[in-house]
């Protein structure tokens, strides 16, 4: 057996990510910030997809609600991140609890579609808010504030996003190692057996749903702080599709797959659009090719090359 | 002897199709009770009604004297009702040991624990003891997906045992096993006799007559006879309904 | 890696060549996505202008950084950062999409760049939120509809029905017409972008028997609306009024004969009789074989505005205050006739009335029939602190 | 609201429902038989309309445009089945959704490359223009009535194929007992290809019928696709009867939601709510009946 190179690869990637703001210009830093934020959202969606075992088109609700709540609280005069962010995460968790309790009554394709229905409802709701500029959206006056770290500097924001992303990766790895995480995955493998063991599958699905929603909600908070401009498109089904694309480009069920998938997606979209206005065709063809020609996302394939058969990095 | 699991006029129908007809079944504490019947007699449906996978159209299920008819299966499991499945129902991505540790943790009915799984070393020891018991010694770190069919049947049983159940519902534990494996399983079940109350659904008549204290016979959803192995062997009605033109299948 | 090297080289080259640099103009427009047609037409107008100016603006060589905003506000901030920090543009124009304009302009303006919005003129920029370095050359978003309200008053319309797309621009236009129309509004309907069938709305409308119907629809929904309106036979019962976006040369061919008779307001028409317009329309026709749409005209005019101001400064725009003053004076021949900037840097201009009629070749075209409001200013300028 | 208006609006709603049924029939058939979810169905709707416009522009014949568009779209769908979808049957919903989403992006851009971004136009056949009075004082466009008749005819045709032909019986058998049909020697794969062709043909009919009343442009299939999925889900995936019921319900609820809600709760809130009304309908149906209105055979 060859040496397991996944840890060195991870360390190398993380080191590069930390070095980036000191070597790249602020455009690169902003592009990378968006990659990481979408990476975090993709990670949240993939937690639900890979470990709870259900596909949701509705996680953009939590991206949008996290982003909008942050913006509204900030505009209402609450600026401290230490105050705003926990409130927003709690709000997202409650929303996820309500949405999950309804949606998880169904399964499979029905679940996919009921979550789609939720995103559409939120989309049309936000789009009808005249005080928030309708579809054109609105500008958020400033970023949240943290003691000791000046977030108005894009480099600092980037570093914070990076640290939070690594924290989320660590959190997911830790949850998976606990009985709670094991019960969630057991429920994906076989809900009937879980139930025969005395555990309620619905409860674990719901917990997994809320947990993944909170991760996506955190991405929403960071999104607002990064762009300082919000539109209802944040809750559109199209963005849901894009986030899933990121997941499967990188590879589902691994901690780095969705993040690297997001980075690749953002980079491709950005580069292709410089080459041709028909970049969407390129993206579409890539997606078809990925599904048809590869059994897994590129990171998972690579990770397997780097060490062992286990796709979990 | 007290009745630990009972059904009263239990009935289940899907539209016009009645799969369980007014079944009154009683399991005495500590007995191994076999449930037999021809294919399509409704044996698995009855097990599913007992375990809570299906809910009945009419009638009641009682565990230790309490009505549990409306409880979902995980609540029944928590009250001491364990089961195995005819088609192996396991956590494919888990190792045998991880599955068992989870099952041991699940006895209290929740797993919202945030310590590391691997840290519960006392449970790991118990998991290995159970694996030894069912004959899976040394297989604790093998992923379930890469185990053989026979090993799956053994793991099914281990998972049921992990719950320290009051009653075990074993749905065809020998299904799909070869001759040697079947013999081993019979030996294993024999070793459990008397220590657990067992409802054994089984096609293998040798196994049934070797293990059962009492036998109930199901035909077309109806319980047509209950009695000792000797009674059942000599029961004319059973012979006609069940052994009639075919000596078991 | 190769890419990084290439970018590095390009950066090195730009730095060393700065002295003899051409003027760097960032041109942001929508080339892909649902509203990609807008950017394509804008680019045509831009190209014609540059062609007529011999590839220079204000006598200076020009280097254009063309950016596709994809019609999405999500990337607008990054686009702005890229233009400022990487491409180091001298000024930015285009930004036809209101959301992109609002999302991206903050970053651009914060860096001290002059921003020339060549199409949308959102109300937040017209009132208290106006900015000394932000100029809007086409219109304030409500201007067409306000003109239409005045025209309907003059026509003696008493009972007016309203229909519009249920989004910000639709709300703006309805607000605009309600601001100037003096009669009674008998019904008001909003429909989403995704709705392409209007049978139910027409059934409700018919019994109300309004004197006129004013609608705001663009793109796909505009085509559905007009075709179904005609099919339902309503075109013979209720006169239809709208804005240039419904009758422009991008939409008109898809309307076919069902568009005949529609009256719309605009701030420019291909038939306007002035030398600048004749030159522009002739050049556009020669190159693309049809009359231009207002997106092309607006970007043509925006380039001409820049040309006039830069020329006035002798090609040197490094003194921002002086360049801003030159832009405010707007010394150029606009194809739309009279043009001046208001204190909020929105245009003061005529609102024209036009009607779709059959041309000599039988094909519908948009005929200029009058002026709805002369040298009209927008309704927000008094809130703008700029003098 | 007068009775005449009520009737007229009901007809509008039902008509919209019929169109949705034509779209939903194809998706639900494919899902029922092959367990595959195909987002590119909306692209079939779009491409049929484009081809019809192109053929009509070249030949000035509605009949030819009609035939070429339907035949072309059916063949294209069958080729797609062979090349793209066949390997996806064994995959999960995610792979199916994303691969077909990729196809949607590709087809939308191909349409832009070939036909441009500006909307195209197909005029109404002269025979079908104008209005008739369906009730005293209520003129109704002839074309819409014709479209409804065609939709009903297409639906009946589908029903005849399914209930009266050997192919139809094999298709229904495939949906219910796939293994049994395979054991009987029926070539399920060939049937799947046929089902794709038939489904695309129905989508094509819907696309052709909309071409004269809606703009033909890139992405025109996307909103219809979402509605189609909503209909399929409300009806119960895989059930044609469910799809028909759901399509009519969605059509009528959407129509009345659009006209009544703004009157009841004010223009702004009412318009906003009417945009979501079918999604609310779907969510409510699924919360009450988690697998749709009609349980399909499987």
TrEMBL record, chain A:
Give a GO molecular function annotation for the protein: branched-chain amino acid transmembrane transporter activity
Topology in the lipid bilayer is annotated as:
Multi-pass membrane protein
Membrane-crossing residue ranges in chain numbering: 35-53, 60-78, 84-104, 109-126, 157-175, 202-223, 243-268, 275-293
Give the subcellular location.
Cell membrane
Which InterPro entries does the record cross-reference, listed alphabetically?
Answer: ABC_transp_permease, LivM-like
GO cellular component term of the entry, any: plasma membrane
Q: Which domain of life is it from?
A: Bacteria
Q: Keywords assigned by UniProt? A: Cell membrane, Membrane, Transmembrane, Transmembrane helix
Q: In its UniProt entry, what is this protein called?
A: Amino acid/amide ABC transporter membrane protein 2 (HAAT family)
From TrEMBL, chain B:
Matching entries from CDD domains are given as: ABC_Mj1267_LivG_branched
The source's domain of life comes to: Bacteria
Give this protein's Gene Ontology molecular function annotations.
ATP binding; ATP hydrolysis activity
Q: Name one GO cellular component term.
A: plasma membrane
Return the SMART domains for the record: AAA
Check the record and name the InterPro entries matching this protein: AAA+_ATPase, ABC_AA/LPS_Transport, ABC_transporter-like_ATP-bd, BCA_ABC_TP_C, P-loop_NTPase
Domain ABC transporter, by residue range, is 5-245
The answer to whether UniProt assigns keyword Nucleotide-binding to this entry is yes
Q: Which Gene3D superfamilies does the UniProt entry name for this protein?
A: P-loop containing nucleotide triphosphate hydrolases (3.40.50.300)
Keyword entries, A-Z: ATP-binding, Nucleotide-binding, Transport
Name of this chain's protein: Amino acid/amide ABC transporter ATP-binding protein 1 (HAAT family)
Q: Species name for this entry?
A: Chelatococcus asaccharovorans
Lineage, please? Bacteria, Pseudomonadati, Pseudomonadota, Alphaproteobacteria, Hyphomicrobiales
Automatic annotation (TrEMBL), chain C:
Span of domain Leucine-binding protein: 22-359
Recorded hits in InterPro entries, A to Z, give: BCAA_transport, Leu-bd, Leu_Ile_Val-bd, Peripla_BP_I
- Kindly state which keywords UniProt assigns to this record, in alphabetical order: Amino-acid transport, Signal, Transport
Give yes or no: UniProt keyword Transmembrane helix.
no
Q: Where are the transmembrane segments?
A: none
Under Pfam families, the record lists: Peripla_BP_6
**The keyword Disulfide bond belongs to this UniProt entry's keyword annotation:** no
Q: Which GO terms describe its biological process?
A: amino acid transport
**From which residue to which does the signal peptide run?**
1-19
Stated family = Belongs to the leucine-binding protein family.
> What is the protein's name according to its record?
Amino acid/amide ABC transporter substrate-binding protein (HAAT family)
Which species?
A: Chelatococcus asaccharovorans
From TrEMBL, chain D:
What is its membrane topology?
A: Multi-pass membrane protein
Is-annotated flag, keyword Transcription? Answer: no
What does the entry list under GO cellular component? plasma membrane
Transmembrane helix as a keyword of this entry, yes or no, is yes
Annotated Pfam families: BPD_transp_2
Q: Which domain of life is it from?
A: Bacteria
For molecular function, the Gene Ontology terms on record are: transmembrane transporter activity
What is this protein's name? Answer: Branched-chain amino acid transport system permease protein
């Amino acid at each position: 057996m060859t040496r397991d190179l996944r840890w060195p690869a991870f360390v190398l990637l993380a080191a590069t990510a930390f070095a980036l703001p000191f070597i790249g210009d602020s455009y690169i830093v902003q592009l990378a910030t968006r990659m990481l934020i979408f990476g975090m959202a993709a990670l949240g969606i993939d937690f639900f997809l890979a470990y709870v075992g259900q596909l949701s088109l509705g996680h953009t609700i939590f991206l949008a609600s996290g982003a909008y709540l942050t913006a509204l609280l900030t505009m209402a005069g609450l600026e401290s991140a230490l105050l705003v962010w926990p409130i927003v995460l709690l709000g997202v968790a409650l929303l996820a609890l309500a949405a999950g309790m309804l949606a998880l009554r169904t399964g499979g394709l029905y679940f996919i579609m009921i979550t789609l229905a939720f995103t559409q409802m939120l989309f049309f709701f936000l789009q009808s808010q005249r005080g928030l500029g309708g579809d054109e959206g609105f500008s958020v006056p400033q970023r949240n504030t943290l003691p000791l770290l000046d977030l108005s500097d894009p480099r600092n924001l980037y570093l914070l996003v990076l640290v939070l992303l690594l924290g989320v990766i660590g959190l997911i790895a830790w949850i998976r190692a606990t009985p709670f995480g094991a019960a969630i995955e057991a429920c994906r493998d076989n809900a009937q057996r879980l139930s025969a063991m005395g555990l309620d599958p619905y409860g674990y699905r719901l917990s997994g749903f809320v947990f993944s929603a909170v991760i996506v909600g955190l991405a929403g908070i960071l999104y607002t702080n990064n762009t300082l401009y919000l539109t209802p498109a944040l809750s559109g089904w199209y963005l849901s599709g894009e986030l899933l694309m990121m997941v499967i480009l990188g590879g589902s069920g691994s901690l780095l797959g969705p993040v690297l998938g997001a980075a690749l997606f953002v980079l491709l979209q950005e580069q292709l659009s410089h080459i041709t206005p028909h970049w969407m065709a390129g993206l579409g063809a890539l997606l078809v090719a990925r599904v048809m020609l590869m059994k897994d996302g590129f990171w998972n394939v690579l990770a397997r090359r780097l060490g062992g058969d286990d796709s979990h990095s | 002897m007290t009745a630990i699991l009972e059904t009263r006029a239990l009935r289940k129908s899907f539209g016009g199709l009645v799969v369980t007809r007014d079944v009154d079944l009683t399991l005495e504490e500590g007995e191994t009770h076999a449930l037999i019947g021809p294919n399509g007699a409704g044996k698995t449906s009855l097990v599913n009604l007992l375990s809570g996978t299906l809910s009945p159209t009419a009638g009641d299920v009682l565990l230790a004297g309490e009505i549990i008819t409306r409880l979902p299966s995980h609540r029944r499991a928590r009250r001491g009702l364990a089961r195995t499945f005819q088609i192996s129902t396991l956590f494919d991505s888990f190792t045998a040991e991880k599955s068992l540790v989870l099952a041991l943790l699940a006895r209290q009915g929740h797993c919202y624990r945030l310590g590391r799984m691997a840290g519960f070393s006392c449970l790991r020891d118990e998991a290995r003891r159970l694996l030894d018991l069912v004959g899976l010694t040394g297989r604790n770190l093998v992923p379930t997906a890469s185990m053989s069919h026979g090993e799956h049947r053994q793991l099914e049983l281990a998972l049921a045992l992990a719950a320290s159940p009051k009653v075990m519902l074993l749905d065809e534990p020998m299904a799909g096993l070869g001759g040697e494996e079947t013999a081993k399983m019979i030996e294993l079940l024999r070793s459990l006799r008397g220590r657990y109350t067992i409802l054994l659904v089984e096609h293998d008549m040798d196994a049934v007559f070797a293990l059962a204290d009492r036998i109930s016979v199901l035909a077309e959803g109806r319980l047509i006879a209950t009695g000792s192995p000797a009674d059942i062997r000599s029961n004319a009605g059973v012979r006609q309904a069940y052994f009639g033109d075919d000596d078991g299948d | 890696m190769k890419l990084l090297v290439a970018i590095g080289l390009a950066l090195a080259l730009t730095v060393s060549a700065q002295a003899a640099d051409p003027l760097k103009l960032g041109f942001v427009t929508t080339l892909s996505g649902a509203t990609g047609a807008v950017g394509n037409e804008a680019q045509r107008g831009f190209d014609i202008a540059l062609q007529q100016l011999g590839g220079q603006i204000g006598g200076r060589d020009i280097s254009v950084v063309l950016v596709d905003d994809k019609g999405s506000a999500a990337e607008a901030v990054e686009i702005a950062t890229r233009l400022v920090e990487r491409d180091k543009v001298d000024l930015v124009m285009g930004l036809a999409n209101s959301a992109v304009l609002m999302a991206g302009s903050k970053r651009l303006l914060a860096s001290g760049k002059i921003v020339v919005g060549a199409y949308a003129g959102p109300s937040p920029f017209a009132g208290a939120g106006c900015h000394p370095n932000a100029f809007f050359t086409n219109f304030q978003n409500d201007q067409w509809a306000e003109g239409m309200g005045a025209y309907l008053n003059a026509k003696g319309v008493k009972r007016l029905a309203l229909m519009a797309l249920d989004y910000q621009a639709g709300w703006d236009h309805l607000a605009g017409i309600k601001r100037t129309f003096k009669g009674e509004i008998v019904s008001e309907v909003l429909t989403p972008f995704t709705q392409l069938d209007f049978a139910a709305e027409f059934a409700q409308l018919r019994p109300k028997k309004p004197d006129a119907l004013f609608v705001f629809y663009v793109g796909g929904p505009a085509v559905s609306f007009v075709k179904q309106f005609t099919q339902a036979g309503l075109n013979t019962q209720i006169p239809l009024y709208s804005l240039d976006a419904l009758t422009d040369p991008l939409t008109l061919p898809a309307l076919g004969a069902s568009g005949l008779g529609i009256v719309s307001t605009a701030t420019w028409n291909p038939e306007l009789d002035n030398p600048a317009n004749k030159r522009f329309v002739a050049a556009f026709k020669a190159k693309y074989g049809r009359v231009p749409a207002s997106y092309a005209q607006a970007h043509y005019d925006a380039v001409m505005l820049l040309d006039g101001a830069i020329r006035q400064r002798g090609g040197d725009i490094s003194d921002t205050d002086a360049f801003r003053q030159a832009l405010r004076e707007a010394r150029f021949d606009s194809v739309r006739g009279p043009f001046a900037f208001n204190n909020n840097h929105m245009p003061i201009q005529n609102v024209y009335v036009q009607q779709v009629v059959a041309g000599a070749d039988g094909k519908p075209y948009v005929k200029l029939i009058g002026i709805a409001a002369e040298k009209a200013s927008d309704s927000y300028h008094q809130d703008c602190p700029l003098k | 609201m007068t009775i005449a208006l009520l009737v007229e609006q009901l007809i509008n709603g039902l008509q919209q429902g019929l169109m949705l049924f034509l779209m939903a029939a194809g998706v639900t058939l494919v899902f029922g038989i092959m367990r595959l979810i195909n987002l590119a169905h909306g692209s079939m709707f779009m491409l049929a309309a484009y081809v019809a416009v192109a053929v009509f522009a070249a030949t000035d014949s509605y009949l030819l445009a009609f035939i070429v568009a339907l035949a072309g779209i059916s063949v294209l769908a069958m080729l797609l089945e062979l090349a793209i979808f066949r390997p996806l049957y064994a995959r999960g919903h995610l792979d199916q959704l994303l691969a077909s989403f990729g196809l949607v992006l590709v087809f939308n851009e191909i349409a832009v490359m070939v036909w441009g971004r500006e909307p195209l136009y197909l005029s109404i056949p002269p025979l079908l223009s104008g209005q008739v009075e369906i009730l005293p004082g209520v003129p109704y466009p002839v074309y819409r009535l014709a479209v409804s008749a065609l939709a009903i005819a297409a639906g009946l045709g589908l029903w005849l194929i399914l209930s009266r032909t050997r192919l139809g019986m094999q298709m229904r058998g495939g949906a219910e007992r796939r293994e049994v049909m395979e054991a009987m020697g029926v070539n399920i794969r060939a049937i799947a290809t046929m089902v794709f062709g038939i489904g695309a043909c129905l989508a094509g009919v819907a696309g052709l019928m909309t071409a004269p009343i809606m703009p033909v442009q890139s992405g025109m299939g996307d909103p219809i696709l979402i509605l189609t999925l909503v209909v399929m889900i409300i009806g119960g995936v895989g059930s044609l009867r469910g799809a028909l019921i759901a399509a009519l319900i969605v059509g009528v609820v959407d129509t009345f939601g659009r006209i009544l809600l703004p009157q009841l709760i004010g223009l702004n809130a009412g318009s906003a709510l009417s945009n979501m009304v079918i999604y609310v309908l779907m969510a409510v149906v699924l919360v009450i009946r988690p697998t749709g209105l009609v349980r399909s055979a499987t």
